[in-house]
UniProtKB/TrEMBL annotation:
Matching InterPro entries: RNA_MeTrfase_C_dom (IPR019230), tRNA_m1G_MTases_N (IPR029026)
Pfam families membership: Methyltrn_RNA_4
Classification lineage: Bacteria, Pseudomonadati, Thermodesulfobacteriota, Desulfuromonadia, Desulfuromonadales
Domain of life: Bacteria
Name of the protein: tRNA (guanine-N(1)-)-methyltransferase C-terminal domain-containing protein
CDD domains for the chain: TM1570-like
Domain tRNA (guanine-N(1)-)-methyltransferase C-terminal positions: 6-184
Gene3D superfamilies according to UniProt: 3.40.1280.10
Amino acid sequence: MKQPAVAIALVHHPIVDRRGDLVTTAVTNLDIHDLARTARTYGVSRVYLVTPLAEQQQLVDRILQHWRQGHGSSYNPKRAEALKLVVVAASLEEALADWQQVSGAEPWPVLTGAASQGGISFGRCREILAERSLLLVLGTGWGLAPELFEQGWTVLEPIVGAGDNYNHLPVRSAAAIMLDRLLGTVAD
């Protein structure tokens, strides 16, 4: 079976904060490393870190240089390999354009969010992956801005845990669960 063409976009703008205000969130070192390692494990081709802030882009570049060419590359070659997947994009549109060029097909952006209602099931999304080049769009802060949901793009059903409706996973954990559901080996 052919490996599906999948990329992740971790969006830092446009994002909402706890009050619902439109903000730009800060890039975190843990997100960079953990998303890259998870992506590499599941055969994801790209991890886009989407931030319009030049200072944040420079921070990511410094971190990537250390692990790709600096001391980190010889200290932990497996991490260096995973971090080769990371690309900085100033906007989601830039990430979509790059992913189209890399994958050779029109990207299928699929939005995610703990607060979203309904959405395409993981099973259906997995089926469609055989035919489409997926860009899984993840939010930081308190989630993707409403303007992204107004684009008419597909929305993935939220992850539902056990318990009392508490649903506030770290984005790294949510990404791992989603990728396992979409690309992992399904047990019989």
